[in-house]
Amino acid sequence: MDGRAVVIGAGIGGLAAARVLSKRYASVTVLDRDTLPAGGEPRRGVPQGRHGHILLISGLRVLAELFPGLEDELIASGATRVDIGSGLCMWQYGRRRDATRIGLELASVSRPHLEAVIRGRVVQEPRVTIREAAAVTALSGSGQRVTGVVLDTGETVPADIVVDCSGRGGHSDKWLTALGHPAPRQVEIKIGVGYSSRIYRRRPGDLEGWQAALVLPEPPHEKWIGGALPIEGDRWLVSAGGWHIDPVPSDNAALEAHAKSLPDPIVADLMAQAEPLTDAIPHRFASSRRRYFEEVERPPAGYLALGDVVCSFNPIYGQGMTVAAMAAVALGAALERHDAATADTARDYYQAVAELVAVPWQFAVGGDFAHPETTGPRPPSNRLTNWYVKRLGIAAQTRPKLTRAFSEVQQLLAPPKVLFRPSVVAASLLHGGRKS
To answer: Is the pLDDT of residue 91 over 70?
Structure first.
C-alpha cells in the first residue's frame, strides 16, 4: 500500500470516500474550507444542514458496511428508528396512509449529527488526515493527469488521486478547463423549491402516537409539503415548503401559517403545542443538476468527481447522501479493478456512477414534472409514469404489500421493475382509482 490521495470536501460523500481510499493509499488528506465543529452543529459549507435530511435505508446500509456499528452508534447518540409503515404518518391523495408495520426502518437524525459521527470514525483512521480551513482554488497537473490541488495560500498538495467532493457550489468546470480538459455536459431542471425549518423540543405523545410525519402535495393543484422528523437531543425538526413558491416562508409566523394551510393538521398541531428552540430558517433550491462525466471521452487520470459535483438532487426526495455513499463504494471497486487512478479507472467509475444516478434522478425529476411550472428536459413517458405512480400510491395507502413494494423502490432497495410486476400493476389499477 503506497501513494497519496486527496479528498476535497468533508461532507458525507467526502468522508465515505476517505474511508474507501484509506484501504488503498498510504495517506489520505481530506481538505475542507470550513472550520469543522467539534459536535453536531451546522456549518457554513453545508447550507442545507439546518434542514431535514433523510438518509435512505439503502444509504444507511452502505455506510454501515463502511463503518461497522454505525447504526447502533447513531441510535445510542439520539437517532430514532422509524418504521416507514407504522411510524411515519404519511398524508397524500386526500387521506392518511394506513398504519401497518412493514419492517423497513429509517434512522432519523440531523445531517450535522450524522456527519459528526462519521467524521469521528474517519479521524480514527491512522492513514487519514482532515485539514480544516483549507480552500482549494485549482488542480495541479497537465492535460493527461491531475497531480494534486492548489490551496488559496498558494500551497500545492500533491496526490496520486484527487476525489472531488466539493459539492454543488464547487468549481470543477473551471479547474478542469484550466488544465485543458473539457467540462462535462450538464442538464438543469428548474424546480423552484423553497422551504423553512424550525427546531422544537420533543416529548412523548407529541405526534398523536406517530414517530414522524410527512404531508405531501397532490400536483398539479397542490404544491406545499410539510414534515416533522425526530432528531437527536429529544428534538423535532419541522419544515414546510414546496415547489415553485414565492415567497418562501422566512419567519416564524409565515412558517406557522403555511403549516396551517396543509390538508392534514398534524404538523401545525405539533408546532402549536411544542416548545420552539430556534427561529425559522429559510432555504431555496432553484434547480436540480446532473453532469454527464461518463460522456467525456478522455477524462484526466488522477481526478474523480463524487456526490453533488456529479448530480445535485431535489433535497425533498432525500437521495443525495445515499447516492454519494454508493458512489464511494463504486470508487473503491473501480480502483480495485484497475489498481491505479488511470483514465480507464475514471471511465469505469463514471459509468458505474451513471448507473447509480439513473434511477433516483428519473424518480425525482419525474415527480418534479408533475408540477407544470417545472422546466428542463422532460423524461420520456413522464406523464404516463406519473399517472401510474399516482394510482399505485393511492392503492398503497390501504394495502401493506404495495406499501412495502413502493417503499423498497423509493429507498433504493429494489429496482423500479418491481412496481411493474403483474400483481402490483393489477392491484394498482383495481384499487388506485379512489381515495377511500
So the answer is: yes
Number of other residues whose CB lies within 10 A of the CB of residue 38: 8
CA angle 124, 128, 130 (to 5 degrees): 95
Spatial CA neighbour of 78 closest among 26, 117, 25: 117
Cell of 280: 425559522
Q: Crossing angle, helix 343-368 and helix 382-396, to 10 degrees?
A: 70
Lowest mean pLDDT among 87-91, 366-370, 381-385: 381-385
| Grid cell for residue 297 | 471521452
Among 188, 185, 184, which Cα is nearest to 176's?
184
Any residues with CB less than 8 A from the CB of 37 and at least 6 apart, and which?
43, 112, 116
Contact 113, 38 (CB under 8 A): no
How many whole angstroms separate alpha carbon 290 and alpha carbon 185?
8
Closest by CA to 105, choosing from 74, 60, 44, is: 60
In percent, how much of the chain has pLDDT > 90?
Answer: 90
Q: Other C-beta atoms within 10 Å of 77: how many?
A: 16
CA atoms lying within 13 Å on the CB side of residue 252:
9
Burial of 172 (0-12, 13-18, 19+ CB in 10 A): buried
The residue ranking higher by pLDDT, 1 or 386, is 386
In angstroms, rounded to a whole number, what is the distance separating the alpha carbons of residues 137 and 404? 46
Q: In what order do the strands lie in the sheet with 146-151?
A: 136-141, 146-151, 156-158
47 has a pLDDT exceeding 90: no
- Reported as a single tens digit per residue, the pLDDT across 105-154 is 999 999 999 999 999 999 999 999 999 999 999 999 987 899 999 999 99
C-alpha cell at 307: 456526490
| Residues 235-264 as b or e (16 or more Cβ within 10 Å = b) | bbbbbbbbbbbeebbeeeebbbebbeebeb
The answer to whether the bond into 219 is cis (omega within 30° of 0) is no
What are the pLDDT digits (tens) for 2-16?
Answer: 899 999 999 999 999
Q: Structure pTM?
A: 0.95
Asked if residue 436 has pLDDT above 60, the reply is no
Average pLDDT value for residue range 317-340: 96
Q: What domains are there in the chain, each with its CATH number?
A: 4-71+112-187+288-365 (3.50.50.60), 81-105+189-286 (3.30.9), 382-431 (no CATH)
Q: Pairing relation of β-strands 80-83 and 105-108?
A: antiparallel
